[in-house]
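Dear Dr. L.,

I hope this message finds you well. Following up on our conversation about the binding site, I have prepared a predicted three-dimensional model of the protein together with magnesium ion. For your records, I am including the exact sequence and ligand specification that went into the calculation, followed by the structure tokens. Please feel free to forward this to your student if that is useful.
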Amino acid sequence: MQTYYWKLQNNAADDEIIIKAAEFIRQGEVVAFPTETVYGLGADGLNSEAVAKIFAAKGRPNDNPLILHIAAKESISRLTSGLTENAKVLMDRFWPGPLTLIVEKSAIVPDAVSAGLPTVAVRFPSNVFAQRLIKACGCPIAAPSANISGRPSPTNAADVLEDMQGKVAAVLDGGSCGIGLESTVVDTTEPVPVILRPGGITYEMLTEVLGAVEIDPALQGDKNFRPKAPGMKYRHYAPKAPMYLLEGKSAELLPSMAVKAAAEGLKVGVLCSGAMKVLLPAIPGMQLACWGDSKEELAAELFYLLRDFDRSRPDVILAEGIDESGIGLAVMNRMRKAAGYQLVTLTDTGLRIKNGTQLPSFMVK
Ligand code: TXA
Ligand code: MG
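The resulting structure of the complex is given below.
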């Protein structure tokens, strides 16, 4: 299939592009578009055949439901059989923005979208291009992140094309996504709302308006819990090289681990802060991916940096963990998944990997 590439420029020419893209979506085709979180792969959310094309383009398991994107708060009413008070409070406070609400679904939502669940995920993005596209379509747009299933979500149009060239009708280029991590998903159907996926709307922001909020216990990687968001159970964001996430104090050992791994002949990838970078000795062949000063910068760059490792192809990746306040919770959730839960901690008895995996030789004294 030919994939059209259209660059949005914030000028009058955009109108024509949006109309052409909306036309494709109304005809049942798939179009990739920017949002403030990550790029989405959009189709008419009320057309099962169009929605099936999204699953095909991504290679996505069909037990993983999609988010319906709307461009006005009122548009949620025909998609749901009823909203809880908590849902209304969250819509008023955080929409438009990076927050997805799980609500009871109405009969017009196809099973292909909800993956047979009695609930549906709904989001009103703040990105103006996304809003214009949804309005021009006149229907809710079903859209997952625009990556091949399992790969890091794309945060710029080049990364979308890397995965979707030839598989979708068009890619709209609206520049880099500001937040860089997918939206916070909150189940509003429970008496106490539950965060199923952390994101740009943080735990602290949610508790401030709601009081009590729970976090799905499965997010810690404990195999005794099954995540309530089906998509959270898959290995995800995974670079091709094995990755170790150094949590807490263990991060202080990153420079010496990198030296030992290189001495063993491994090509080492390092994902770390600017403060850690200055502590690293020069290591031949090291692939360094460094973020700036703030967690927000790391959030915005994380997926791009993980994809970059698939281009530079290190043998092993050592990543520095960060504290989990604010957007740190979402960043650490994505990094833990990228590491396949190979989480390194420093205990009284020395280093260990939380999921019981054996320490690699370059972490053993
Ligand atoms: O920021 C975002 O949310 C991006 C942009 C494009 O809007 N979209 C996105 O979609 O990340 P996706 O499909 O990659 O992730 C949706 C997540 C998945 O983990 C899915 O399992 C969960 O939301 N989800 C969708 N519907 C659900 C439902 N009814 N109940 C529980 N989880 C649901
Ligand atoms: Mg995704």
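In brief: The chain has eleven helices and 18 strands.

With kind regards,
A. P.
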